[in-house]
């Protein structure tokens, strides 16, 4: 479960990076309100990135990095939204590693 | 009259910064950790702006708008991707992990963190040596930028050498007295000031020329710049844009003064907030600064050969005092990059070269003194080198970022893969650095591969070598293979 969540966040990071430059508007010169459309896309995309990053800090901060054993809370409530089942799944995953 | 006004503004600015530094000095403990990291107590606003101001170099205010002027505004996209997204992701992936490790094991530098994990003094020295190799020309670049800007602003009344010298003396004084805390505070002032000033400059110029629509029309109707508005060009190819964004984005995370900030945050919350605000802050700065550069091209503002676009356009459209204020701010931004770099460079030198190789038993108090001496030596040498500066800002800056980028992937592998061995990471760093340096200095090693830059190819090489050599070697007995993984996050 936790591993799936990690893969999901990695995918989000890749998509955020991949579309920060609007490749699909390549060669396009349409101007809206004084700026090229591709620049508006970029501005909007960066705003979106900030929102996504904020959500990440609320929901998943520590994923892929923090490895404390079960029951040892990280202290500032970052893992809210994850029930006890996720926590045990997480330590099981850690236990698999060499 | 304007000369006196301009110099007055610049001197006033320096004095203000010095006052902040003195306040910081009074709060400083005489220990190396406090001098380098303000004892790991930095809050959100200060961490955000100090990292931000550190990125705001001569590059953002002078070289960046110059590129937009010459090649079009696509530069905004490259910078947005590299700083707003890639660096932000690394802020978490490298930064948060480093922060946890730094708190647990009291690391102050990247080399120290790696040297401890791989039980290798040589690796520690290698990372510090490589970093100083790239840091030095970059500090020199900032001095060149400041000297040139002062000369242009005063129309030659302050010659280049005097300007760069003045800045150097000021920086030395400031860093030696104020340490990280003072630097972080002035960075915050400068970062906030420059953000506001850039927007005021943009609105001012746009108000004079009739709004963004008119400025963009001028670009579209001019034959030379008609294709500025269409995304991409012979200069901005997808390969080049991606190579540049990726190498510089990773390079930023390995730049000593940025990397060291990962250790300085006061709490998790500070790191989280800075992370989420990062993309917005980048857009807020890059869009106005680079659009000014691009629009200037359509506005028939003649830019004299070798001069920067931003000061010329400000001189054309805004009052003298405002132009002087912005240039003073930009110079302050350059200084804030440089003083952070001086401090980090000095910490790499004292902690990773002097202490392990010359005198292991140096006391805390003495290391603090040594660090300050290191600042003086480093800054003076960079100033002397800047007097002979042969290459342009962009070439130097770009080389430094790509050079640092070569460190990023071996470090990432070490942080996340337990099987990394000492031989693996050392080989990865040596090979990628060797390759990239060769591409810069030897004609036989090409600088581009089907449009992809040598910097990016070198990063790939570093990754491959680190993984391959780790797979075929066994870890040394004294390596501490689990310290990057076990018990992280438990306070």
TrEMBL record, chain A:
Signal peptide: none annotated. Residues 66-98 are annotated as: Disordered. The chain crosses the membrane at residues 7-26, 38-56. The keyword Repressor does not apply. Keywords: Membrane, Transmembrane, Transmembrane helix. Residues 87-98 have a biased composition (Polar residues). This is DUF3311 domain-containing protein.
TrEMBL record, chain B:
InterPro entries: Na/Glc_symporter_sf (IPR038377), Na/solute_symporter (IPR001734), Sodium:Solute_Symporter (IPR050277). The chain crosses the membrane at residues 6-25, 37-63, 75-94, 123-140, 160-180, 192-215, 235-255, 275-297, 317-335, 369-388, 400-417, 424-443, 449-472. The keyword Transmembrane helix applies. Pfam families: SSF. It comes from the Archaea. Its main location: membrane. GO terms for molecular function: symporter activity. The keyword Nucleotide-binding does not apply. PROSITE patterns: NA_SOLUT_SYMP_3. One of its GO terms (cellular component) is plasma membrane. It is a multi-pass membrane protein. Keywords: Cell membrane, Ion transport, Membrane, Sodium, Sodium transport, Symport, Transmembrane, Transmembrane helix, Transport. It is found in: Cell membrane. GO terms for biological process: sodium ion transport. PANTHER family: SODIUM/PROLINE SYMPORTER-RELATED, SODIUM_PROLINE SYMPORTER. Belongs to the sodium:solute symporter (SSF) (TC 2.A.21) family. This is Solute:Na+ symporter, SSS family. The lineage of its organism: Archaea, Methanobacteriati, Methanobacteriota, Stenosarchaea group, Halobacteria.
